[in-house]
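REQUEST ID: PR-0412
SUBMITTED BY: lab tech R.K.
PRIORITY: routine
TASK: structure prediction, single protein chain
INPUT:
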Amino acid sequence: MRGRKSKIERERIAAAYVRVSTREQSTEGHSLAAQETRLRSLAESQGVALGRVFIDAGQSAGTLERPAIRELLAAIERGEISALYICKLDRLSRNLEDLLGIVRLCKNHNVALVSASEAIDTGSPAGRMMISMLGGFAEFERARISERIADVAFDLRRQGKVYCRHAPFGYRRDGKTLLAHPMEQAALATMRQMHANGASYRQIATMLTERGVQPKGRAWYAASVRDVLRSRMNATSAA
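STATUS: complete
OUTPUT:
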């Protein structure tokens, strides 16, 4: 009938999403309760009542493999959400591709995405442009952090210190120091020589298996040989 709303339209609600990582849970201003209070106040100031709050406690924003975010995205796909309130873009994701995917999903299902900290409302063209720019900055900062971590790991490798959970092939752990493993170093030398002579990774894997050289994983594969030969630790040692 004309003038009547569909069932889906009647059930669409405004929702909020809050998230904290374990590290942030005790930090002032980042707690779940603080985020929810802020978003309820923002929604009320706009004449909107939040129908539901999706909560991910102790979850990293590095991926979308989080219970509440998956449930939220499914609700958006079902057409149940009219607006989504968040405190900051990084509450949704710290990955630009994932973040823009959520923005596209909201756009395709006519969901306004409102960020309290960035003062963004994707209901407007300016808001959509701004969210893309801010998402780019978030990805840039994430890349910088990764670079700093890589620099620390490289320095530890250079000093012969432990830089990861398991010792790389060719080495063994002695406390916090990496020591050369004689048998594995000999195998490494053979692997490098075969590779320099044109042998494939698969052929090298077969050689290692036939000689009974123990891998770090379950078995030798072309991919595992490639990873060993390309590792920065072994590349540095061979230089």
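NOTES: The first helix runs from residue 7 to 11.
REVIEWED BY: pending
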